[in-house]
Amino acid sequence: MTDEETPTEDSPAGEALTGQPDPTEVPGPRRRRRGLRLLTALGVLAAVGGAAAAGAGLRDDGSGTASEERRPPATAEVTRQTLQDSRTEDGELGYGSSTTASSRVPGTVTRLPDAGERITRGEALYRVDDEPVVLLYGAVPAYRELKPGAEGRDVEQLERNLKALGHDGFTVDDTYTEATAEAVRQWQEDLGLAETGTVAPGRVVFAPAAVRVDALDTEEGAATAPGQKILSYTATAQAVTVELDTADRRLAEPGTKVGVELPDGTRVDGRVSEVMTEVDPGSGAADDGPTTVVKVIVALDGTKAQKAAASYVLASVDVEFTAGEREDVLTVPVAALVALDRGGFGVEVVAADGGTSYVPVETGLFADGRVEISGDGIAAGTTVGMPA
């Protein structure tokens, strides 16, 4: 096609591109070149898959039937199948996102764990002036001093930990009573701390569960002060991190099930556990400015998946996302779609005697070069026209 023949939305070929009739054109039957479909550049963007479908289209000539000389140059069969809008992306097997633990008290770092070490409830995450900063479980960060009279979710969180560590004599609720203070004194005695009955915010670090030390940000013997980074930690279960373009955000909704292929070819089940949007500042060059990426954390569900991944500390893996699925539907190659003069799409059905007719269809999911269709007379095994 020359520049003069390039279709626009105001031309007949441009009408084919949009799938809408030209309101300025006088209605009437259209002819086509022998063996050539007018719609040679039909672009169908599937909203669920972003898949572009380029096919040829032939307009209804008014009778709904194509003549002998207009038989399609190729054919395909309507098939019944499960259609999936899926995408495979590169991922990094590790332990998911990391969290920084910063000092809340001044002093000297006297003990640090090893990178990769596992710390559980009640154990020291690190020590300052030879006193432990203790890991406890909970979602609310330590942000204030806890003492008799305090009320709130953080109080109940502390009491649940005290109960789990074997201390009793108090009711687990959101009120810090004298009974709670007595349990705290028992706990402080076990840790070798001054038995004050009060918990300073710098004495504990709350995390959802046991942690794995990811990296150290200081060293033993170094001075520390409030706000200084001590170390970073992750969850103990292995997970996969995937970076997606913002246009592919639809692939990763929290809770979505995915498939993960490990380096040895083993396939395990995963689940999207966290989705974060991050800005990469880039290098600052004109052609490498800030970009926005979607960071997805995929949890490996179940003992089987964790066991299969256990031999890989860090590794590249393939993650298959499925954004849409339609079971037991009729499909044709996307290129079989034609745009009809009266609007919408159809297929050119080829009869046993060689005759053809144009049947309007409703389109559904687009995936892997095929499209879900439905319409009168459309069934598995139906032969439809295709471009050469």
How many structurally independent domains? Answer: 3
**The CATH top-level class label of the largest domain:** Mainly Beta
What do we call the CATH topology of the largest domain?
conserved putative lor/sdh protein from methanococcus maripaludis s2 fold
Q: Give helix % range.
A: 10-25%
Annotation, overall tally of beta strands: 24
- Low-pLDDT regions: 1-64
Average pLDDT level: 83
The count of helical stretches stands at 4
| First and last CA, distance | 17 Å
Beta-strand percentage? Answer: 35-45%
- The SSE string, one letter per element, is HEEEEEEEEEEHHEEEEEEEEHEEEEEE
Named at the architecture level, the CATH assignment of the largest domain is Beta Barrel
Largest sheet: 6 strands, antiparallel, barrel
Structure description:
- By secondary structure, this protein is mostly beta strands.
- It has three domains: 3-85 and 326-386, conserved putative lor/sdh protein from methanococcus maripaludis s2 fold (Beta Barrel), CATH 2.40.420; 88-95 and 239-323, Beta Barrel (Elongation Factor Tu (Ef-tu), domain 3); 99-235, Orthogonal Bundle (Muramoyl-pentapeptide Carboxypeptidase, domain 1), CATH 1.10.101.10.
- It is 11% helix and 40% strand.
- A hairpin with a 6-residue loop joins strand 1 and strand 2.
- The longest helix has 14 residues, at 178-191.
- It starts with 11 loop residues before the first helix and ends with a strand.
- Pfam families: PG_binding_1.
- Residues 58-72 have a biased composition (Basic and acidic residues).
- Residues 96-105 have a biased composition (Polar residues).
